[in-house]
Specification:
2 copies of one chain form a homodimer. By secondary structure, chain A is of the alpha/beta class. The first copy, chain A, is built from 18 helices and 14 strands. Chain A has 2 domains: 261 residues, 3-Layer(aba) Sandwich (Rossmann fold), CATH 3.40.50; 115 residues, Rossmann fold. Chain A has a 6-stranded mixed beta sheet with strand order 3-4-14-9-10-13, sandwiched between helices. A 4-stranded parallel beta sheet of chain A has the order 7-6-5-8, sandwiched between helices.
């Protein structure tokens, strides 16, 4: 535990320090690199400028945001003695516990500044998408804090699987719509083509972006993928760095689950700067679901961030924006692409990725729950599974490695998924090479067409 | 926030300092005051001795328990600036946030030592009852930590209202049975009389006690009511005392919800010792549901702790052990009696009580959620409602009182209740004087018969 006074005063912007800068996003109309002005249509000016800031390693956290952080930060860094013992591993396993935030996950770290900047710039309404609902709950709360109205498009399958998260958003006063919906052109088009579409983050983003563009004084906010979101999440890693120092350790391996990359980058990038600058050799492992394996099996190319093609073209590892992921319970990981920073870092060998089957993830989550007393979110279960793989390697080699992972959220609202796992009713959903290849081909055809 | 090193090393036993000692519990067969030996049948020896300890103000916390406390303690003390502003009150409102424990409530504070003592004494199995499931989840986890098998009887209405808590207990490896069940004589008897019995804590206690008495090497554990449970909860108030001191304040009013009294006593008793010993004049307010008003409208007399009469006779404010409370969402407050210490303190004017209607409790909880970002458990909503009443009095009088309440748990698994509230479908369930009078008469007839 760190005292409140140790909450970081600045976020860490890895874009300033990357050996190879990310390939620029393109304006989808002009195919020119996007400018801050291109982004102002979507985001607050401050967020837009952070997005494209390639020069400042450190960016000040506004004091009102830091005050709200103090309601739940610094979050605990915990040595997972119980898990180590259950595995019989010589590894030292630590986790950064972001589940103690009032909404139960790391998402609030970016919702607060995004809502704050909108308020500062005179915006009255914000829109967003959400999968499992962690981000939607965070944004709904942050909007309430800073006096904004929030409209959230929730991926339909999650809206139905996790009704409590919808209630949480509504309790914070947000308007919640299952996506795809008939309330936007994007939603209508998708439902016309696929009447039983279960929704995806890509579709929900299209709807939220469209609503923001059509509504006066309204901006769109995003829960992951983009650089400014990951920037805000670096409070996780910056605190963890100080806490590991207090524990007298430095991580050999840093692990986090990977949907759009914000909790991964939030934990990893502050440590990665020491690989880049100080010759450290920590490994950084992103854990993605086997059903949505953009890092391990996707292609690095330009793609849209959303299904309807409203966003800039983003250079990233992707399965194609038309990819329809299986209905796994880790709704926050059902996204077709990776953020452009993480994509560049993966390309440059500064990080690695593994894919985890759904059943392995719940095996890991259940073992963690029984040994540490915290029921992890299905997303976080992927990080735990990857951590367990690393810890088991240490049993074989006898090495006493220090492994640090991010417990991005708790799973108390995902118990239906655990029920299915305990009853033996969960399935794996890895996809075939043919499906991936045909999606990528469809993507390339659509971009060239 | 306090550092780990400030976790108390001893619990505070108010029984040693009460101006009038509690009236003794009676052995139901002999009608003589119970001895530690009478209790050994039910509880671990250590817990039994703590229960009857009237002489030691301070009792050491075993080091393995303190180590497990360190996974989530010290819990935060938070100034509720958002709530103060929403109310426009000059009062300073603080809350002790017990919802950050891994299972989401204060219950773990007593589950850990109870399971630890059982383990130390060679016990292999524990049983218990649970209402909303907060205690059952805590005990299931604590049993797992110390290598015990747990069997939990959950009140049927809560088992059905809150299936996620059942899943949580099962994820920790516990066996969960809805009560009343056909697995015990007590359950069968009740179902024969009332085939549609919705369950109550009193009934579930009967079943858990019976199973413990019938099973070799098995003890019963309890989540509230008894003195040793409240003793373990005093870590809440002892930490809060130090934290208030750091904030430069001392509470004028201390508020907590009241089911059996353990979170109330846990927060209140450490402060109450300064009323008893140092001339402080803090007011202590217990908030109970209008549907189960034993403190405000019950009678002080001997009664059983359970529906079937297996427990000792406890001198307490009670509505009668046959009382069947309405199906309010605050399952943890659906108990017919108050602990014997709190009952004596209420009788002696050292504390007060208010009753809160269900709708007022959710109004308060929703306002708190929107202003502080934490969705409170339905039980905790009662404490918030009572706090708001006090804070509103300060608006009228202009007094800048300092109010401290216990946020005993979060409500993330109780969102169905918030849904009903937001949809306008919740009802109040206060009961008539006639119902109370007839229950008390039934109680007295049964005890005399």
């Amino acid at each position: 535990m760190l005292p409140e006074s140790e909450i970081p005063t600045q976020w860490y912007n890895i874009q300033a320090d990357m050996p190879n800068k990310p390939v620029p996003m393109l304006n989808p109309k002009t195919k020119e690199p996007v400018t801050p002005e291109d982004l102002y249509m979507l985001f607050s000016c401050e967020a837009s400028e952070q997005e494209l800031n390639m020069t400042d390693s450190w960016i000040d956290i506004p004091e009102p945001v830091r005050e709200m952080y103090a309601n739940y930060r610094c979050t605990p860094l915990v040595r997972a003695y119980g898990l180590e013992e259950a595995l019989g591993t010589p590894a030292h396993i630590y986790f950064k516990n972001e589940s103690v935030s009032p909404i139960g996950s790391h998402k609030l770290n970016s919702a607060l500044p995004q809502a704050y900047y909108c308020k500062q710039e005179g915006i009255t309404n914000v829109t967003t998408e959400t999968g499992a609902g962690q981000w939607g709950a965070a944004l709904s709360y942050a909007a309430k804090v800073f006096g904004l109205e929030a409209a959230v498009y929730q991926v339909k399958v999650s809206y139905e699987q996790k009704p409590y998260r919808r209630s949480i958003m509504q309790t914070f006063g947000a308007q919640v719509t299952p996506s795809p919906s008939m309330s936007t052109r994007a939603g209508k088009d998708i439902l016309t083509l696929y009447p039983n579409h279960q929704g995806s983050l890509g579709t929900a983003i299209s709807e939220a972006v469209e609503l923001a563009m059509m509504t006066p004084n309204c901006k769109y906010t995003l829960g992951s993928v983009l650089s400014h979101v990951t920037l805000h999440q670096t409070v996780i890693g910056l605190e963890a760095e100080k806490q590991m120092e207090l524990a007298g350790e430095y991580p050999d391996v840093v692990v986090a689950c990977f949907g759009g990359g914000s909790n991964f980058g939030g934990l990893a990038f502050p440590f990665m700067r020491h690989n880049i600058k100080d010759g450290k050799t920590t490994r950084f492992v992103a854990a993605e679901p086997a059903s949505c394996p953009k890092l391990t099996r996707g292609e690095f190319c330009y793609d849209y961030g959303d299904e309807s093609g409203y966003t800039p073209l983003i250079p990233m590892f992707t399965l194609g924006h038309n990819f329809r992921p299986a209905n796994i319970h880790a709704g926050g990981l059902r996204y077709h692409g990776a953020g452009l920073v993480a994509s560049q870092l993966l390309k440059d060998g500064l990080m690695e990725a593994v894919d985890i089957e759904q059943i392995e993830s719940f095996e890991a989550g259940t073992l963690f729950a029984a040994s540490e007393g915290i029921i992890p979110a299905p997303e976080s279960c992927h990080a735990i599974a990857a951590t367990i793989r690393e810890a088991k390697k240490c049993i074989e080699t006898g090495e006493q490695k220090t492994i640090l992972f991010c417990l991005s959220g708790h799973g108390l609202i995902d118990m239906a998924a655990y029920d299915q796992y305990l009853a033996g009713n969960l399935i794996n959903n890895s996809i075939s090479d043919e499906t991936i290849a045909s999606n990528i081909k469809e993507l390339k055809d659509s971009l060239n067409g």
